[in-house]
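Morning!

This is the sequence you dropped in the shared folder:
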Amino acid sequence: MLSLAYWVHDLSPFLIEFGGGFGLRYYGLAYLLGFVAAGWLLRRYARAGRSLLPPEQIIDFMMAMVLGVLVGGRLGYFFFYETELVRQNPLTLFRVWEGGMASHGGFIGVAAAVAWFARTRRIPFWHVGDLIASTAAAGLLFGRVANFINGELWGKLATVPWAVIFENTGGGPDPRHPSQLYQAALEGALLLAFMQWRFWRSRVVLERPGRLAGEFLLGYAGLRMIGEIFREPDAGVTLLLGLSRGTFYSIFLAAAGLWLIFRPSPPLAGLAAGVQNIRPPSRPAK
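The structure's back. Tokens below.
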């Protein structure tokens, strides 16, 4: 394949590097921005009277989410993608400076953290789940952009004008789809916009607790499967039933999302009058 007309990825993974492989990485900054965005949105929800999570507990809640994401994402990466590596050397789990996170594992960690927080603070579990689900795509957006900056998780070979050569990070001399940016647009920007539209323009958080979380899981699963079409399967990671690991695990997220969407759920009591007065978007006359 001719590659002279394509951009060669040469971005540094460091925003600030102090030397010796130590510094402020874009990947770490992406996590920070994701949590800050989530916290900001949760404060907006509280000020608008659309949340049972008190403003003074938001920081505690975000700390629980940070722990859930990091522990779940780390464990998920090794048990979903690098099982053999853990068998050979269990201490690899603790080498956090070497990277390795999985979004599917992060979801499991967040669910566990939400369950713990909701129980200890006596806030309905499904309501807390809806709140964090409506903000999660912000972290996915920043994370996928950081994947691109790092030059990792590149896409399949491509001839599109915007293809990128990831030779400096192991992608070979031929142009590839910048699938990280596709996923940033789909799982990140598009899903975040949809979740915010649903949260602010409907009564779903009041009338169907848990449904918004279900829509997030189903939406993420579908958009992740689209992104996987363009993404190069991880080297050394075997396919499952002919599917990439990302697609295979997304099937279970989609099933969980459908269950949450169609499960019977009583309306949520106790939200402020602002939620009670939400009206669904008007439909044009036919």
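Headline: The beta strands are 7-8, 14-19, 22-25, 164-165, 175-176.

More detail when I'm at my desk.
O.
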